[in-house]
Amino acid sequence: MNPTRPLRRTMTTTVAMLVALALLTATWVVATAQRAAALDPFTGYLMAHFTGESTNGEQIYLAHSTDGLNWSDLNNGAPVVVSTVGTRGVRDPAIVRSPQGDKYWIIATDLRIASGTSWSDAVSRGSKSLVVWESTNLVDWSEPRLVDVAGGIPGAGNAWAPEAIYNPATGDYVVYWATSAPLNGVTKHRIYYSRTTDFRTFTTAQLYIDRPSSTQGIIDTQIVESPTSVGGFRYYRASADGHITIEGSNSILGTWTTIGNLSHMGISNGTGGGNVVEGPMWMPFNNGTSWGLWLDQYATGRGYMPIRSTNLGSTQNFQTVSSYNLGGTKKRHGSILQITAAEQSRVLARWGSTAATRIQSYNFQDRYVRHANYDVRIDPNVSPAQDGQWRIVPGLAGTGTVSFQSVNHPDHYMRHAGFDFVLARYDGTSSFRADASFKAVAGLAESSWTSYQSYNYPDRYIRHWGYELRLDTITNATGRADATFRAVG
């Protein structure tokens, strides 16, 4: 018998245990760091919304607030992301953060009424898919994709107003939305749900909310968490079902208890008359002790109004809020995300307000870049003045580039098309982003000025030729002067 074998076996076992412990510790540290990042104090709020049935209103807009009541439009009031799939329009966006704070999603209704679709067709023969974007930093978003969530529901006509919440009981997300479909002889909107871990693969849709005693449908519902269970429940649900009904539960997929509605405040979803609202949108205040519930006064066109409560266990605890400001654009059904200082910094760096500037020609210094009938040129004495004003914003194509956003048409940008420059509405495509992005470099004719190098044709620069802007290679002194500009107040 070799007396060293037991010792070797013991040493081997000990080493293996130490390695396993090291790996476990490393995993714990990483997971803890991720949780800590997600649990940084919230310092602001981000609202995702659409604006209405205008040409570009059914896209994703963002607004920011530091107090939850006074809001500023981001991206100078223009859409932040645009749908290029399905109906090419989106409504009712929900913005979702992972528990670790390392991933974000926007999910939205695939619907564009502005294209001429009737509400009847949208309900009975509409899209059964949701539009999904994802991001790792809240500012750089993927291309949109369609996810068919309602196609398996017998007789389904649509999929509207999606929401999502992380469910710690199952370690995945519950995605819920409204679908109009026949059930027990009644066709109406009910809330269905599915589960997902990645917003790509979804479980079969299941019925989530129905009011079987009523022919009244439910389109809008949203859940908020009360981590300390103030009022007796961990989760609260607000649904537009004729009233604005508040329910509570300790499990997202468990039994819900009806708490009441807002009829005592003169607020309903139609059944109770009074101030008729829809699109209930929860917002936990960052103080950790109160919740806001925003309600869209669609019947009167007055837009969202907030009410507030410190205890959601009774609807009698809601109070009206008189002082608030929603900014310059109309806010339609969306969602509000509490954001950390780091998230807020990234969002404001990308989409915060940018001063309006004029872009002056180097060799014709009485002339400025302007748009006229969607063409782009240099002219003196621009009238109206806003035709010659631009916001030089972070480039649509990404870091290190800039784009030129029109002041009086904020959903339009200067882009090249066939090496000619036009003012065009942002369509969300990668080709648009590339055509509208430029690298600001030292002026080719004077280094204290600026020249703009094309992102997708880096051998070409913005220049004027016969006062028209075009994208050219630069080979001589005249070209260098034509391709040199400066931004002035």
TrEMBL record:
Protein origin, superkingdom: Bacteria
Gene Ontology terms: biological process: L-arabinose metabolic process
Sorted UniProt keywords: Signal
Endpoints of the signal sequence: 1-31
Database matches in InterPro entries: AbfB_ABD (IPR007934), AbfB_ABD_sf (IPR036195), GH43_arabinanases (IPR050727), Glyco_hydro_beta-prop_sf (IPR023296)
Domain named Alpha-L-arabinofuranosidase B arabinose-binding: residues: 358-486
Molecular function terms from GO: alpha-L-arabinofuranosidase activity
Entry protein name: Alpha-L-arabinofuranosidase B arabinose-binding domain-containing protein
Record organism: Promicromonospora soli
Organism lineage string: Bacteria, Bacillati, Actinomycetota, Actinomycetes, Micrococcales
